Every structure is written in C-alpha cells, then in structure tokens.
Amino acid sequence: MGGEWIRPLVCPICAQPLADYTQTWQCPAGHSFDVAREGYVNLLRRHKKLPEMVGDASEMLRARREFLAQGFYEPLSDLVNGLVVTAVTEQSTPVVVDVGCGEGYYLERLAQQLAGQPVVLFGVDIAKTAVRMAAKRVGEHGRFLVVDVYDKLPFVDQSVRVLLNLFAPRHPAEFARLIAPGGLLLVVIPAPDHLQSLRSQFGLLGIQAEKQAFLTAQFADLFTVQSVQTMAFPLHLDNHSLSLLIQMMPGARHLTPPQQEAIAQTPVVETVASFVVLPMRRDA
Ligand SMILES: C[S@@+](CC[C@H](N)C(=O)[O-])C[C@H]1O[C@@H](n2cnc3c(N)ncnc32)[C@H](O)[C@@H]1O
Ligand SMILES: [Zn+2]
C-alpha cells in the first residue's frame, strides 16, 4: 500500500490531514492518535461520551465470528465481492470503506479477492473489540478505525470509491460527502422473511417490514438505486450453530428462560437466510 493509504484520512477534531508516524498518527495542529498493538486507531472524538451499551458486545462478536467462519453467509460475501470488484476496476488506488465492519469477516474475504491490487481497505466500527478482532484478522491488508457512524467521519470529501454497509447503522449525509461521484454505496439489510421460521418457532424479534422503503427514501436525494437484489438460501443448523446465530441477533440478551430452553432442546433446524442488497450510485 505504500504511504498512500493515509491520504483519505483527516483528523476527527480539526479535519486537517493526518500523517503517519508509525506509532501515532498526527495532524498539523498536533492532535495525535496512537496506533494500538493490533494496528487499529481510535479516532473517536475525545470529548464524546458514549452510552454504555453502544456497538456490539464481545460475546456477540465472538458468536458472529464462529458462525460466519462456518461459511453460512459465504454466498452473500461472494455477491458483495463481485459488486465491489466491478466498481473498483480501472480505478487507481481506490478506497473501500466498510462502515460497521464488525469482526471483519466480509473485509477479510474482500481483501483475499483483491489481493495484489493497489486498493486501500478501511474498516470502521464503534465497538473497540470488533475493530481489534478485524485488525488482527486482516493485518496489513486493511486499516481499522474506531469511529461513531453518526458523527462526522474522518475521511476527505469524495475520497471513497466504495462504501460497504452491511447490517450496520447509516449516516446518509456523511456517506454522500465521502463517496466520489460515480462511486458505489452498497447497503445490505435483512429481508422481512430473513430467518422467519426461527423467529416464529422461538418467539424472536421480527424485522421491520418497511425497512427497505425507509432506507431507499433516506438515500433518494443523494444516490441512484441500481438493481436491487434479493438473495435467499437455506441454512441447515445443528444446535451449536443455531445458538450462535441466535446470539448474533438483536434481542439475544433478553431471551427468557423458556426461550433458552426451547433453543437448547432443538438438535437440528432448517431455516432460510434472506437479504436485500441495494447497490446505490453516487450522483455525479
Ligand atoms: C449487525 S453488526 C454487523 C457487522 C458486520 N457488518 C457483519 O455483517 O458481520 C452491526 C455493527 O455495527 C456496529 N455499530 C453499532 N453502532 C455503531 C455506530 N454508532 N458507529 C459505528 N458502528 C456501529 C456494531 O458494533 C456492529 O459491529
Ligand atoms: Zn487536528
């Protein structure tokens, strides 16, 4: 990557360019940010006080890592990779940012797919544990930052070719500021029938039916929605995989003892994963 990778980054405090001094990153005004042992950098604005329960908890992240490592969502990752590869072709050193990257499963598979190409990959998430796990896994192929997506994001205007947003919170105005004209925003959300049979069998939280319409409306003035794709595939889960998947879901912390018992008593189960993939082009 050479030293080029730092170019899209700005200081979260004063918005001046950041420079890389190996152990720390610093702006001309002297604001400095230490590089953690695992290689990630905390760019949360210091005065910012976060509520206790923000971002994913460690046990949720570990469950997601173990579940995804079994390859259950590989078809989705392949679809995302295909769309990213098309969007970065013939660009010189394109920047790809995964906002809400979690423990880094998708970014690692993307890094493998793009190996040898002069692309710059960033993963950002508010959960320090997530960023640490992702940085460890992706190593020198990516850069990882702790940031709050609802805040101003520490990137130069129009510096990003592809912004990935997979099952994570969004900040439309900031996404529009960062993405270069003609660049791609790729949002993935669960479809209304995602894991429907599990939701009814165990009384789990449902998915907001109007999520896609709400999201499209949020981005309508800033992006042009391209061909929306729905992807569904079956999941055959043993008890362990089932419990990992349930731990990844919203509401996992609030399961009642009867729900926990019902899950524990289920040796195998079949369900269907179902996603909506929305590629949106930044208007020129
Ligand atoms: C459902 S997980 C998806 C993670 C990853 N994209 C994946 O699909 O495996 C949502 C992610 O958004 C992150 N997140 C939640 N609130 C955030 C915020 N305000 N700023 C940045 N990331 C946030 C969480 O920490 C979590 O890693
Ligand atoms: Zn500064």
**Discrete helix count:** 9
Runs in which pLDDT lies below 50 for 5 or more consecutive residues are none
Largest sheet: 9 strands, mixed
How far the N terminus sits from the C terminus, by CA atoms, comes to: 28 Å
The CATH homologous superfamily is called Vaccinia Virus protein VP39
Specify the CATH architecture.
Answer: 3-Layer(aba) Sandwich
Question: What structural class should be given to the helix and strand makeup?
Answer: alpha/beta
Number of strands: 12
CATH topology: Rossmann fold
Q: What molecules are bound to this protein? A: S-adenosylmethionine, zinc ion
CATH class: Alpha Beta
Number of domains: 1
The H-and-E topology, N to C, reads as: EEEEHHEHEHEEHEHHEEHHE
Approximate strand percentage: 25-35%
Radius of gyration: 19 Å
What's the overall average pLDDT, rounded?
94
Shape: globular
Question: Which descriptors would you attach to this protein?
Answer:
alpha/beta; binds S-adenosylmethionine; 284 residues; Rossmann fold; 3-stranded antiparallel beta sheet; single chain; 9-stranded mixed beta sheet; binds zinc ion; 9 helices
Short description:
It contains nine helices and twelve strands.
Fold and architecture overview:
The chain has 284 residues and is α/β, with parallel strands linked by helices. The strands form 2 sheets. Strands 4, 5, 6, 7, 8, 9, 10, 11 and 12 form a 9-stranded mixed beta sheet that branches. Strands 1-2-3 form a 3-stranded antiparallel beta sheet, with no helix packed on it. The longest helix is centred in the first third of the chain and has 15 residues, at 74-88. The chain has helices at 58-69, 74-88, 105-113, 128-138, 172-178, 196-202, 211-219, 239-248, 257-264; strands at 19-21, 24-26, 32-34, 41-42, 95-99, 120-125, 143-146, 160-166, 179-190, 223-225, 229-238, 268-282. The chain has one domain: Vaccinia Virus protein VP39 (Rossmann fold). It binds S-adenosylmethionine and zinc ion.
